[in-house]
Amino acid sequence: MFEEWKGKRVLVTGASRGIGAAVARRMGALGASVAVHYHASSEAAEEVVEAIRTAGGEAFALTGDLSRSSEAQRVVDEAAERLGGLELLINNAGDMLGRVALEEIDDAHYDRVMDLNARSVVMVTRAALPHFRRAGGGNVIHTTSIAARNGGGPGAGLYAAAKGFVSTLTRNMAKELAAERIRVNAVAPGTIATDFHVRHSNEAHLATARAGIPMGRLGTAEECVGAYLFLGSESLSAYVTGQVIEVNGGQLMP
Predict the structure, then answer these.
(1) Strand partners of residue 247
(2) Which of 38, 110, 159, 239 is labelled catalytic?
(3) pLDDT of 182 over the 80 cut
(4) How far apart are CA 166 and CA 163, in angstroms?
(5) Pairs from 145-148 (Cβ < 8 Å, separation ≥ 24)
(6) Are strands 182-189 and 244-247 parallel, antiparallel or unpaired?
(7) Of 48, 155, 202, 205, which is most buried by a Cβ count within 10 Å?
(8) What is the pLDDT of residue 87?
(9) Which listed CATH number (3.40.50.720, 3.30.499.10, 3.90.180.10, 3.30.70.1520) goes with 2-247?
(10) What pLDDT sits at residue 197?
(11) Are 75 and 64 spatial neighbours (Cβ–Cβ below 8 Å)?
């Protein structure tokens, strides 16, 4: 089952930490060739690359601000050139960029949140299409969020809305691209214990979330990886497209 990962050409955006890093490490360890994208965390990205190489895989890091369309294009083209093509794109880059109440949202904050979490998904995927077509097909997995369904916590309205955009766009992309043998799905993590919540949540936020999780605890980045492996596998999910897989310990059961 895992043989198909050997040599698979993969770009993971936002792969220097958290879920993106866990996904990149695991796919690399299975034999994929992985482009590890980061924006500012160069040292962390290089640690992910080193972990993949130590496990016997191939990887390299590349940087870019994906909230800018020109940078999205460059990152994808550079990744495909260095990989020798592209078969799997994981759109994981994103961030809340702070908890901001509605009355405090200004144009600058709105643009930053929407450009990073919504625009980047559109533009990175668009940039990948020519490379997928040359390969005879492709696979896209977006990272959305439980916030896309429950609206997010205090001050997270724009982030939740952007993730709702991603979940809806997943379904439309799946319809539009199916005829070209390009599958598009998404993974929606719940409350996962990564540095995302170190930066954006206090203990009261996390205690409230934990109380609503039937499994009684926060998830880990590694516990999200299986959903990406399933969706990235042609042997396991070749007939799956337009789906959003919820990984949340029972916190949300749609």
Answers:
(1) 189
(2) 159
(3) yes
(4) 5
(5) 145/188, 145/189, 146/188, 146/189, 146/190, 146/191, 146/246, 146/248, 146/251, 146/252, 148/188, 148/244
(6) parallel
(7) 48
(8) 98
(9) 3.40.50.720
(10) 60
(11) yes
Single-letter code of the amino acid located at 223: E
**Domain boundaries along the sequence of the chain:** 2-247
Give me the mean pLDDT over the 244-254 stretch: 95
CA-closest candidate to residue 38, choices 59, 60, 74, 64: 64
Token output for 172 = 């439309």
Q: pTM for this structure?
A: 0.95
- How does DSSP classify residue 148? H
Looking only at the bridges linking them, the beta strands covering 9-12 and 33-38 are parallel
Report pLDDT digits (tens) over 118-160. 999 999 999 999 999 999 999 999 999 999 999 998 899 999 9
* Residue type present at position 198: V
Angle between the 225-232 and 18-29 helix axes, to the nearest 10 degrees? Answer: 50
CB contact at 8 A, 12 and 36: yes
The answer to whether the beta carbons of residues 249 and 215 sit under 8 Å apart is yes
Q: Tell me, letter by letter, the H, E, C secondary structure of 100-138.
A: CCHHHCCHHHHHHHHHHHHHHHHHHHHHHHHHHHHHCCE
Tokens 């001050």 correspond to: 155
- Identify the band that residue 206 occupies on the pLDDT scale cut at 50, 70 and 90: confident
159 as an active site residue: the answer is yes
- What is the C-alpha separation between 13 and 36, in angstroms, rounded? 7
How buried is residue 206: exposed, middle or buried, by Cβ count under 10 Å (0-12/13-18/19+)?
middle
What pLDDT is stored for residue 198 in this prediction? Answer: 59
